[in-house]
Amino acid sequence: MDTSLKLHGLVAAVHTPFKADGSLNPSSVDAQAKLLASQGIKLAFITGSTGESSSMQLEERKEIYSAWKEASAKHGVEVIAHTGSNSVWDARELASFAQECGFVATSSLAPSYYKPGTVQRLVECCAFAASGAPDLPYYYYDIPVLTGVRFNPVDFIRLAKEQIPNFAGIKFTNPDLALYQTTLNYDETVDIPWGVDEWFTGALSVGAKGAVGSSFNFAPALYQKLMKAFAEGDVETARDCQWKSVQMINILASKGYMGCAKALMGWLGVDLGPARLPQGNPTADQLKELRSELEGIGFFQWALN
């Protein structure tokens, strides 16, 4: 199995579109892919945390996969499917469907209700999920702040390379830069894309080559400028871009990140509807404040190409 895929550059962790009543709206996927392609984003990570996968039914996730299959072919945006679930059987079934759809990789996070108690048990969960798509590279999605599952990624890699034939890497969503650098340097054949947008410059400074992020949907030009500046040794510009990122994300988070991010995408021409329960959505007054605060930092001048 070829695991030469590398998630370098920017990978957009995309939202799942819903209608106003909260039901699925796969017809908006085409507009998502079109916007990404127009901004030079060539990879999408679907039905992950940003995609509200934990609030979706199994068949809904398959519907979104099917919509992305069509959009991918039309717009040239390749797809990594997050299949993770508290049921590893669901994760394996979704991985199988992702392979049928022609996606380029699968990924899954750890079960988080009944948590794996050892790193070996975690690897077994991931191996089971990955086995549904044996022809696709597999990435473990490590996001301890949400799953509560915390093991040293180096220990995971050591076992995964022995037990998961299609293991390719880890989506590292943890702001611990020392641990990230340790993981990067343990085995350079393993791909470790970064996953915390607000700390991207720090990750680049210790060796990151790519990142998977939700804010790449609505501010791709900012992060492209950041990466270019860093590569050219322009630390001041990279630092300025990162500060804009931090301000933008803080503004969104102050009123409920998910609902505000989806509303923002609507202002950019992609109607994604509301966030699903248990997450909330901004009130009309909060939306006015949101727009005003984003305008105050110049967001609409530097977010898109």
TrEMBL record:
Cellular-component GO terms for this entry: cytoplasm
Keyword Disulfide bond part of the UniProt annotation: no
Entry's localization field: Cytoplasm
Active site residues per record: Y141, K171
Binding, pyruvate: T50, V212
Classification via SMART domains: DHDPS (SM01130)
Record's keyword terms, sorted: Carbohydrate metabolism, Cytoplasm, Lyase
GO molecular function: lyase activity
Membrane-spanning intervals of the chain: none
Predominant location: cytoplasm
SUPFAM superfamilies linked to this entry: Aldolase (SSF51569)
Similarity comment text for this entry: Belongs to the DapA family.
Protein name: Dihydrodipicolinate synthetase
